[in-house]
Amino acid sequence: MAQITPMMKQYLEIKAQHQDAFLFFRLGDFYEMFFDDAVKAAQELEITLTGRGQGEDRIPMCGVPYHSADQYMSRLIEKGYKVALCEQVEDPKQAKGVVKREVVKLLTPGTMMNGNMIKEKENNFLVALTHFTDGSFGLARTDLTTGQCEVTHIAGDLDEVIQDIAISGAKELVVSSNLEASVLKRIQDKCSVTISIENETELPREYEHLVDHLRMDQLSISFSRLLQYLIRTQKRSLGHLQKVSHYQNNSYMKMDAHTKRNLELTESLREKKKAGSLLSIVDQTVTAMGGRLVKNWIDRPLINEQMIEERLTLVTSFKECYFEREELRDELRHVYDLERLAGRIAYGSVNARELVQLKRSLQKVPLLKEYINKIAPAFTDKWFKEGHSLTQLIELLERSLVEDPPISVTDGGMIQPGYHQELDSYRDASLNGKQWIAELEQKEKQETGVKSLKIGFNKVFGYYIEVTRTNLHLLPEGRYERKQTLSNAERFITPELKEKEALILNAEEKMEQLEYELFVEVRDETKQYVNEIQNLARAISEIDVLAGFATISEKRHYVRPTFSKERLIEIQDGRHPVVETVIEKGQYVANDVHMHQGREMLLITGPNMAGKSTYMRQLALLAIMAQIGCYVPATAAKLPIFDQVFTRIGAADDLASGQSTFMVEMLETKYALTKATENSLLLLDEIGRGTSTYDGMALAQAIIEYIHNTVRAKTLFSTHYHELTQLDQELTDLKNVHVSAVEESGTVVFLHKVVDGQADRSYGIYVAELAELPSEVTKRAEILLEKFEQKASQRSETQRVKEEQQLSLFMEDLEVTNDLNHKRTSTVVASQEEKVLKKLVKKDVLNMTPIEAIQFINDLQKLLK
Ligand code: ADP
């Protein structure tokens, strides 16, 4: 390589410190990228790849204009990349040699403050993970747009860590550079996050107040890693970070990502949209911050009865005060996103228009307080204790800013008349000057007799007198000085016009500058109130969510749930909150669920499409709704407080991760069986469907037995294996229920009603008929079905014994498999390992040449890969 230019040397030095980011290197009016960055960016951004230098030394290069760089950076970040923004930090004219450059900011997916990635009703969390030497984990997260900070400590269960990262929807994870590769890999297999490194975990003094209430060092360390990363990347005030709250995963109902997806809690399975999810029903919020909170509540239902009851009692109050509630909600519609405004205030990026939005929102507080006083007086103080100091802020904003300021903060027009004397005097000067000009225009018109004469202004020539060509002859010789000739007019000036112009422009320039200074003063003053604004935002979001729960509960006739300490489920006329809204009005068939001793497990049979899955999901959704503090769709509902909910759907596809369908089904089932407790809710839908009939049926039976005898979780198990319904003879806590269907003149009518007892047949062929399969096919299927059923009843005893043996092997394996969630099954791994061990034992090692030994080890390795 030929000699590197000094600028390239500078580039390479800076790039070396930002290996994992695209380096946007400022060169004049462009940000340039070089080498691999350029090749990759050209591809990702679809921009032209050029080069710098000649021949062999030509360096790949591409660039974007500085004024449109934001959009390019956002696109890269949305794709999960990071960008280091490198600016010229000295005036090129003053520079001796290469202009000094520095990275002024690192943009990453988890630290974005605006742009497409920031959804109004969703948080953008950045998570930091610390793996301690005692095997435990610390997780810290923040949403930079709101300043919310949380930490938790997890004893040693990586699955739980992964679940937590997945739930937070984090796009970026900060870890130490020596985090074990295996841990990182398991996280990356399950969550698509951008990984960032931060090794510093010292807590800077000025942030101590954020964590001084935390009682565990490990929590502070976890947060410090996050904080250090923010300090390093943001390079500006982090004054809006809120006191770190310590959340404990065992204070919430646990649900893994599969369960959340299957239950369509926050997005629909197929379209991945909010519509069709539980969130779309219970989110009746009218503010963006309320929208974010309700999503967080669904992600983490409570398990503390007192806290749940507190929310429910508030919902009751909101429900009982219809008029006040609706008026309150109307007022809330005018409240802006205070949480994010607080973030922008602390960052110093707020403009005057947003401060006026803040003012208008704060002005609503007394009224909101009044409503709450009527609806839930006991909560007025809790929610509005900050009222006092915020009044001063309102007063300042009212006094200082005009009602409709521009977005730009440098062009003036923001500050109220009367707020600042000097500013007013400049304004007067400018106003007087302009009036003088208006008068001059009148005077000149009269004196010259040119009615169309006018005085205009532009940035190049300042003020001028314009006379159209046809009127030029009316002007007395030498009255004005000619300045500019247009095609149909002439422009003139006079010395006194120029004199006034100087006065006006001078006043305006001073005015703009002073306005900016005054605005910055107001903005800085507002910064002091960030904490109060954040507290108010929290209160308003809670009010918004709870008032929304009341609204939907009333509209859809939900009922307040009660909680059973005896693990009873007594649901009368329960409905699926989403399905009932999408089918025709009044068509939804409500169903009871009764589960208690003797009915701990329900085995559900019934035709396909009868409503089995809907019935199962309905129970889980009711439990979740109850535990987030919302009323539930039923006429009466008593439920235990569940610690965890699991749903497993037979033959679920997970092609994305390259695992076979059945394998996924078994891995998921293993996960549920090993994690569930007797306080959990298990929904197993057609488990065992992904393999051959007997195989699948045997597995299903073994799983049912295992849950019944060992796990003892409340379980709904749907199956199309009718043979399994015999199990109620042996298993005392299992009962059969079925979704009824009737045959009317040769066709099946699904009643969607769940009743005790087993279904008499599966009606699969009828469903095929419904789907209008050719009649040759369905007729033939009926004949075959009869044959199969005969054969099945002749199944030999020896076969049954053999299957049971296989099963017990599987179940043993299920119990002993360690937590390593290998992509291959434990059984496959075990057999491969056995092979390797056998080969190793048999080998006569002492009589091998080194080459043979290497070959042998290589072969063994292949067996394990
Ligand atoms: P299965 O699991 O038995 O195959 P699903 O639960 O998927 O059946 O239900 C199939 C369809 O039947 C649903 O999409 C819904 O439209 C309708 N359905 C289910 N349960 C009810 C019900 N209780 N009332 C009215 N319609 C229902």
Order of strands across the widest beta sheet? 3-4-2-1-5-6
Characterize the biggest β-sheet. 6 strands, mixed
| First and last CA, distance | 41 Å
How big is the Rg?
36 Å
Strand content: 15-25%
The helical percent reads: 40-55%
Arithmetic mean pLDDT: 87
Highest-level CATH class of the largest domain:
Alpha Beta
**CATH H-tier superfamily of the largest domain:** P-loop containing nucleotide triphosphate hydrolases
Low-confidence sequence ranges = 652-658, 815-829
Q: Which small compounds were modeled alongside the protein?
A: adenosine-5'-diphosphate
**Mind telling me which CATH architecture of the largest domain this is?**
3-Layer(aba) Sandwich
Provide the domain count.
5
Number of helices: 29
Judging from the principal axes of the Cα atoms, what is the shape? globular
Strand runs, count? 26
Instruction: Kindly name the structural category.
Output: alpha/beta
GO cellular component, one term: cytosol
Family: Belongs to the DNA mismatch repair MutS family.
GO molecular function, one term: ATP-dependent DNA damage sensor activity
Keywords: ATP-binding, DNA damage, DNA repair, DNA-binding, Nucleotide-binding
Short description:
ATP binds at residues 606-613. This protein has 865 residues and is of the alpha/beta class.
Topology:
Layout: H1 6-16, E1 22-27, E2 30-34, H2 35-45, E3 50-52, E4 59-65, H3 69-78, E5 83-88, E6 101-107, E7 125-131, E8 137-143, E9 148-154, H4 158-168, E10 172-175, H5 181-190, E11 194-197, H6 208-211, H7 217-234, E12 245-246, H8 257-262, H9 278-282, H10 288-299, H11 305-320, H12 322-332, H13 338-347, H14 352-363, H15 365-375, H16 380-384, H17 387-400, H18 421-448, E13 454-458, E14 462-468, E15 481-485, E16 489-493, H19 495-527, H20 530-555, E17 562-563, E18 569-574, H21 579-582, E19 591-595, E20 601-605, H22 612-628, E21 636-639, E22 645-649, H23 661-675, E23 681-685, H24 693-711, E24 714-718, E25 734-744, E26 747-756, H25 764-770, H26 775-793, H27 797-816, H28 826-842, H29 850-864
Parallel strand pairs: 1-5, 7-10, 9-12, 10-11, 17-21, 20-24, 20-25, 22-23, 23-24
Antiparallel strand pairs: 1-2, 2-4, 3-4, 5-6, 7-8, 8-9, 13-14, 14-16, 15-16, 18-19, 18-21, 25-26
Helix pairs in contact: 4-5, 10-20, 11-20, 12-15, 12-20, 13-20, 14-17, 17-19, 18-19, 24-27, 25-26, 28-29
Bound molecules: adenosine-5'-diphosphate.
